[in-house]
């Protein structure tokens, strides 16, 4: 037969103390004598007792859970974010409750509603835009909402944004430096706000400099979509530069150029990405890209969680150009 978890009542019986004494022993700051504490801890060790955190949530009506909602979790950018964020939360004594929004299509509201039921202390949205009604419910229930790379026209929401426009401008200037005459800007069919900001800023700069721009959009934000973009765009021999709004798209584009379209990189076509995912630095790619610091992004999210300020805080993650081998 399956054995149930050891209960506080069993610990109290073994230690010869009251049930409330066991509770106080495992409650930080609670009053309990040294003798009682010693008895309770000894009994807990012998029985293999562990505190029931879920029961504590019911008593306190608030947990130390931080809800994290995101889609495309296998993406190198998202997985790196999750890695650093989950470690940071544990170091702050908080727990990460991850909900995959891949099946939520465009509406992540049901997932956030589920986090309310777990009495989450705060909610971090990695991808997707919550409806206004959900934002209002977060505010009404005292649940801090933090959006990453999503901009809402509100005064009561925390947002952490990469400096997309400046990053796209850096990419454009690098391709201008490469003397590109006709360039492609590659986005996925997901058309996220961050991708749109990057594509718009890049196109505006190139057009201001008199450089022809060809836009391509399609598929999910994936390596395969980048490959498809390379196959379709590089049929045009005049295209001698490309800005892919994510590194994952850029790596696919780069492989299509070199391995399928017989284009030398960077001699025939210069390629710049955005994000600086770990794979961008692999020797087989050496992708020139715009980097947003994963560490800085994580630190800004954690600082937003700890902030007592009720008003909105828009924090911008600075970006830099990382020179490698894919731009002339």
From TrEMBL:
Q: Which GO terms describe its molecular function?
A: DNA-binding transcription factor activity; transcription cis-regulatory region binding
Q: Which InterPro entries does the record match to this protein?
A: HTH_LacI, LacI/GalR-like_sensor, Lambda_DNA-bd_dom_sf, Peripla_BP_I
The entry's keywords: DNA-binding, Repressor, Transcription, Transcription regulation
Domain annotation HTH lacI-type: ranges? 6-60
Report whether S-adenosyl-L-methionine shows up as a keyword of the record. no
Q: Does the keyword DNA-binding apply?
A: yes
PANTHER family linked to this entry: LACI-RELATED TRANSCRIPTIONAL REPRESSOR (PTHR30146), RIBOSE OPERON REPRESSOR (PTHR30146:SF95)
This one is known as LacI family DNA-binding transcriptional regulator
The organism is Rhizobium meliloti
């Amino acid at each position: 037969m399956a054995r149930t978890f050891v209960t506080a009542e069993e610990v109290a019986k073994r230690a010869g103390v009251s049930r409330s004494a066991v509770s106080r022993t495992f409650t930080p700051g609670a009053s309990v004598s040294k003798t009682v504490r010693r008895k309770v801890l000894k009994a807990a060790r012998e029985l293999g007792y562990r505190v029931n955190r879920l029961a504590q949530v019911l008593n306190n009506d608030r947990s130390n859970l931080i809800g994290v909602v995101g889609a495309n979790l296998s993406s190198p950018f998202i997985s790196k974010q999750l890695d650093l964020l989950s470690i940071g939360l544990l170091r702050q004594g908080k727990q990460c409750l991850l909900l995959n929004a891949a099946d939520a299509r465009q509406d992540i509201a049901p997932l956030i509603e589920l986090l309310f039921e777990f009495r989450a202390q705060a909610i971090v949205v990695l991808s997707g835009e919550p409806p206004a009604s959900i934002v209002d419910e977060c505010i009404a229930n005292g649940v801090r909402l933090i959006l990453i790379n999503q901009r809402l026209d509100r005064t009561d929401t925390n947002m952490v944004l990469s400096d997309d426009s400046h990053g796209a401008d850096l990419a454009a200037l690098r391709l201008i430096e490469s003397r590109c005459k006709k360039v492609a800007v590659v986005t996925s069919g997901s058309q996220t706000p961050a991708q749109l900001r990057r594509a718009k800023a890049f196109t505006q700069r190139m057009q201001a400099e008199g450089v022809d721009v060809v836009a391509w959009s399609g598929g999910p934000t994936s390596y395969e979509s980048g490959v498809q973009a390379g196959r379709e765009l590089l049929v045009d021999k005049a295209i001698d530069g490309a800005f892919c709004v994510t590194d994952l798209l850029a790596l696919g584009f780069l492989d299509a150029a070199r391995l399928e379209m017989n284009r030398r990189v960077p001699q025939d076509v210069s390629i710049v990405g955005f994000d600086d995912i770990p794979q961008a630095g692999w020797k087989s790619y050496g992708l020139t890209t715009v980097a947003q610091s994963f560490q800085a992004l994580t630190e800004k999210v954690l600082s937003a969680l700890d902030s007592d300020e009720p008003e909105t805080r828009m924090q911008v993650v600075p970006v830099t150009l990382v020179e490698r081998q894919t731009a002339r």
